[in-house]
Amino acid sequence: MAGAPTIGLICAIRQELVDLRAALEHDRRTRIGGFDLDQGRLDGRQVVLAEAGIGKVNTATVATLLAARFDAGAPAVIAVRRALHDTARHVAAGRRDLVVIP
Known about the structure:
By secondary structure, this protein is α/β, with parallel strands linked by helices. The chain is 33% helix and 34% strand. The chain has a 6-stranded mixed sheet, with helices on both faces. A hairpin with a 2-residue loop joins strand 2 (25-32) and strand 3 (35-42). The longest helix is centred in the middle third of the chain and has 15 residues, at 56-70.
């Protein structure tokens, strides 16, 4: 998928990232401003996984990092652990909209 934008996946807590990190064809981990950002491919798409921590300020900070440092052109996907499998399918299908799962 040449030219496809990097997709930023933001989760609040580490447990939400477990399944996605396990499925990630991992390129590297970068630590910026106290946030761990994992780059790689998920189902053929370039992604950056991030644990933002709790709160809108942390989420906004990580979203800014994804856009500025990783050129994440697709909006971030925000998920909770119970919905990770649906979210992973959503990302793999190439949808580029914002998904917020309560």
